[in-house]
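Prompt: May I have another protein with tokenized structure?
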Amino acid sequence: MKLEKGATAKVILDAAEALTQTRGFNGFSYADISEAVGLTKASLHYHFRTKAELGRQLIVRYSDTFEVALAEIGVRAPDAPERLERYVSLYTGVIAGERLCLCGMLAAEVTTLPPAMGDEIRRFFDLNEAWLTNVLEQGREAGSLRYEGSALGAARLLLGTLEGAMLVARSYGDPGRFLKSQRTSCWRSSRRREVPPGFERRTSSGSSSLTTSLVAADTSIRAGHRADPSYSDQPGATGTPGLRGFRRRRRPAA
């Protein structure tokens, strides 16, 4: 059955996304997509003239989909702690399918990618930082979350450690490392020493509750890495775990 142009483009993007999340962008060619979807390379070039354009469109679609998911979390989750838990579930859903976050995978290759793709990768991380910062600020104001430093710094720590935790789990070929740490991070404890700086949820009894927002820090510690809270609030700071080499884009002067 012949597909409509839009449907064909979606099939191509779906295949390219799966290949990128499992092999990396430099790990496949149009020949691999052609084999996966049963289309000629000429047809692929008709829809996406170059691989660079395919890659840019891939990130744009992924970011747009992620933005819709974040908006849905904002509607469905009643408070900041639950919003963070649902946010982490977006990552667990990806790694459970034996894939990595698309932009996390591409970030590892950013120096070899076209500039337009790098711009879109940073746009994805900027989107996540802004959303997390807002949720963390709301949690602090409501008294449901407390953390050291600024909301922006805590957002960067959480985002960076989540992305890093996925990479660590992948290096072992064991997505269960990430999933198991998520489950073990959901127990209640009054032992403050086990709560990494930055993400302590307050409860009515005064005890602390480790939420799934701690999954990455927990995984990082288990893997022998340090979840370093010495982040900087300055744009472009390189002290933030998982975001080295990236700069937040400044707004152009009016």
